Amino acid sequence: MSDAVDHGITVTEIAAMDQPIDVSPETTAAFVGRALRGPLNTPVLVTNFGEFRRRFGDVWSRSSLGPAVRQFFEHGGKQLYIVRVANNARGAMICLPASGSALVLRAVEPGSSEFIRAAVDYDGIDEEADASHFNLTLQRVNPGTGLVEDQELFRKVSYEEDAAKFVGDVLLTSTLARLEKPLPMHRPEPTVDGGGRFGSTYVDHAQAGTDGTELSDYDLIGSRKSRSGLFALEQVPNFDILYLPPPGKGTDTGPAAILAAELYCRERRAMLVVDPRAEWETPRQAVRGTRELGYASPNMLSYFPRIVQRRSDDIARPVGGAIAGLLCKQDRTYGPWQELDQQGLGLQRHLDPAVELDDADRRLLNRAGLNVIIDGTAGRCRVAGSVTMGRGSEGHRKFAKLPVRRMCLQIASAVSAATQWAVFEPSDKNLARRVRAQVLTYFYCLNDLGAFAHDRFVVECDSGVSDRVDSNEHGVAILLVFQPAACDESVSMTLHLTATGCRVGSAAFAPSVEDCA
Question: Which of 82, 83, 137, 360 is least crowded, fewest Cβ atoms below 10 Å from its Cβ?
Fold first, then answer.
């Protein structure tokens, strides 16, 4: 059975009609992995490493997510979505006495470092006339500083299941705790200091949360139906780069998770950063291993070798987070149509390649679709090659170059998002002219930035032109033909816009740019 389900009414914001298309949007990355705390299967946007630490905890020896996030921001990344996943993790439990029974609460966010506490009082409630209602206060406390990070107050809630403000229903809006069964038989008692009426105190958890066990590939993949794992990114309108850090210490991200992530990136028009496996110690092992695993997609980007920390230890570590950060910095500084090997795009000075490569090794790896990390100037190693893993396929030949593939993905995403308004307008020739003018303006701006090899490109829209009888179901199709600066031939694509989204396909009979003025 398909995982596709109806999630009810979905509100999607689309760009206003005829608005200029942004030629330099901030590149956004997404990481999926294990963390000490934070919401599960919920994308959270962070813009610096401090935000990550406050929301998801510090660097954790049992997870590579924290180091990857730090690498990302150290190497120029600005916007990063974090999706926390876990395997059998459990939230802390609080028990509030209720005259022989108990009101049992369970923390929404699992983990051993998630500290929540609760307090009950009857302020503003007539205790004699009303024996069912109470006020509930929840707090999240930083385990390191003891400071309150979050607080929620629920006034005049009831322990009775059929009440209008049943505490179990009200807590469905809470980001801190949920009600657990068995339900209390009585109203919870006030949590007062020393039995007094005033000076309410808090009850800490009776059972600590747990961090769960090591992640599997299927924890990373998740489910489209429940929007878990990488499918939690369904809640994000757009991301450009996806990275799955190794799920645990001394382990590699499995091929099942990598291949599922590649399919999802193809669907979302994003690039997937893939780490070399720990056992690959030579270029030939890397080439052979890549082929055996079946990694051959233009939406995948990898590198060799891993890195070691200078004057530290000899442990070879993945650097996928740094690669994602460099891609974001490149887009902001040079544009995605440029080679990754640019001035100012080196790795941090304390990082060195784990394996020394000669020119023959570099050529071998590049032909196999692997970029190389080599020594650079000023004591900083750099990434050379700018290739995707789409090697060996005639259909992917044009997209073997990383700048070409990334530029095409950016154009498809930008144009489809900015022209979605056209689907809801009457289909006629005037609509076609408006769409064409909007996209042409965008192309002229890209050309001014040096994105194209020349200023001859084709932009056509079929809305209202072909007189199709099924035009309402067909939607709007936009034909684009252009030659990227890093490509020696033209690239053509067709964007099929409908009310449900955009499908990008190749144009088999596209006009030649040589015929353009």
Answer: 360
